[in-house]
Design a protein that fits this description.
Largest sheet of chain B: 6 strands, mixed
Number of helices of chain A: 11
Largest interface: A-B, 23 and 34 residues
Oligomer: heterodimer
Order of helices and strands of chain A: HHHHHHHHHHH
Distance between the termini of chain B: 39 Å
Structural class of chain B: alpha/beta
Chain lengths: 251, 242
């Protein structure tokens, strides 16, 4: 497992895909929220009303609640793209043939890929919180009140859960032998989450639950419903590892 | 007679449109270079995929050092070096980092990796590209890097699919000498090729494959190996049509 982790870490952390996505996931979301904050500060009352929590209650809690809402969608896309690349690139680049006939099993390599991805997701989640808080200061939100801390915790949890919810991309990229099936799955997951949220049954759909939970300040989704994310992501990790273990280069 | 390093018996794996492998038996002994030759689409790459566990046969089995590859332990795979179709070279990593990665995946101890990578960089004349990202290498140098990754850990069994693809004449000579050195040291080497004169220079045995079957063998020291090859293939094609 150590060999698998070290080789996957080398590939992952030296890649430009990882660097670009890290910047987009942290600074991109941060700057988007900062711009919205700036717009709220300068817009007329009618426009301000359209900004939801950013305008009401506003301040740090509103800013961080809005950031969680954006993160639930944008980070799912970002994490899904990275997972699609992480698994699909071995097929697209042809390096998959070199991952057979080794003392390190392919199931172990797949598990190492998931492990490295999740380690990176923790870094990105913390980096995003730091960027959001920093930009909140820059855009004049003032000192951080105690009431903002639960929203900061929710922001962190939403980002981490979103990383877990992107895992179907890894499985489908493996089954589809490339990046595009994984990216398509990610887009499908985002659509499913939106439909579930609009349809009013999002609390029971793990792909929608974290976003709803964050927006509602933890009221619209129970802890049990939120924790459905764990078995769902565990199922996709298992499916991905099995797919790699049983892999045949028959197409 | 000693146990073959690699043994396949009754391998069958067919695909749509009648492509695939139909009942192939094959052995590679320690210290020998065994070449597989055949026209494009004859089944050489499919056979190599079967031999390395990339494909499961519908019938037959493959053994490495007497062990069925479906249950072969890590120790067995640590002694295998292969390159089938694409080199194990990641574009974002330098040549040296790619070789270090390959060594780790083959279970080489950390303290031995540096010297081992240096040795293969010199052997395949890749030293000048050691710090260059492999994505910026030419096709030929990328192929050489993949071969270096397959050969560096002194494998007991070497399986290479068209190893001289994209190589310039000096690269071909370097690879030829690297394979001869390893075979002399006791490695079993299986190479596929459609360059008959090239395999005739290094092979101890040449097996001809056509339409997924072994149809005969060629004498590496024969006078007109090309004529013998085409006679075998055309005769087999005629029999197949009848």
């Amino acid at each position: 497992m150590i060999a698998a982790l070290s080789t996957e870490a080398d590939k992952f952390f030296r890649s430009r895909v990882t660097l670009a996505t890290t910047v987009m996931q942290t600074l991109g979301i941060g700057i988007l929220l900062g711009s919205m904050l700036l717009a709220v500060q300068r817009a007329d009352a009618q426009t301000i009303a359209k900004f939801g929590a950013l305008a009401n209650p506003g301040g740090w809690p509103g800013y961080l609640t809005s950031s969680s809402q954006v993160t639930a969608v944008a980070a799912l896309l970002g994490f899904g793209v990275v997972l699609s690349w992480l698994f699909g690139r071995e097929f697209a680049d042809g390096t998959i043939t070199g991952l057979f006939a080794l003392p390190v099993g392919r199931g172990t390599l797949a598990l190492a890929k998931v492990g490295i991805f999740f380690a990176w997701a923790v870094i990105v989640s913390i980096g995003l919180v730091v960027a959001l808080v920093g930009l909140g200061f820059v855009f004049g939100l003032g000192a951080l009140p105690m009431s903002a801390w639960p929203a900061i915790a929710r922001q962190l949890i939403v980002t981490l859960l979103t990383a877990l919810l992107a895992l179907p991309a890894a499985w489908v990229a493996t089954l589809g032998r490339g990046l595009l099936p994984g990216i398509g799955t990610t887009i499908g997951t985002v659509v499913l989450a939106q439909v579930a949220a609009i349809g009013g049954f999002g609390a029971w759909v793990p792909f929608a639950a974290p976003g709803l939970w964050a927006i509602s300040g933890g009221l619209a989704v129970s802890p049990g419903q939120l924790m459905l994310v764990v078995p769902v992501s565990a199922a996709f990790i298992t499916l991905t590892v099995l797919a790699w273990r049983r892999l045949q280069l028959d197409r | 007679m000693t146990e073959p390093r690699l043994r396949a018996e009754g391998l069958v794996r067919t695909f749509d449109r009648s492509a695939g492998i139909r009942g192939v038996d094959l052995t590679v002994q320690a210290g020998e270079i065994h070449a597989l030759v055949g026209l494009n689409g004859a089944g050489k790459t499919t056979l190599m995929r079967l031999l390395l566990g990339m494909l499961q046969p519908r019938a037959g089995f493959v053994e490495i050092e007497g062990l069925d590859i479906r249950v072969a332990p890590r120790r067995t795979w640590a002694g295998v070096g292969h390159l089938v179709e694409y080199p194990l070279a990641y574009g974002e990593l330098t040549s040296r980092a790619n070789l270090e990665l390959g060594a780790r995946l083959h279970g080489v101890a950390k303290e031995n990796i540096g010297a081992m990578v240096d040795a293969v960089l010199d052997e395949l004349n890749l030293r000048q590209y050691a710090s260059r990202r492999s994505g910026r290498l030419s096709l030929g140098n990328r192929q050489r890097l993949g071969l270096a990754s397959a050969l560096q850990h002194t494998p007991r069994l070497i399986v290479l699919d068209e190893p001289t693809n994209a190589l310039d004449p000096s690269g071909v000579i370097l690879v030829r000498e690297a394979l001869l050195r390893r075979a002399r040291a006791g490695a079993a080497v299986l190479v596929s090729s459609h360059h008959l004169d090239e395999v005739a220079r290094i092979a101890d045995r040449i097996t001809v494959i056509n339409a997924g079957r072994v149809i005969g063998s060629l004498d590496p020291g024969g006078v007109d190996i090309e004529r013998s090859f085409f006679e075998l293939v055309h005769t087999d094609d005629r029999v197949g049509v009848l």
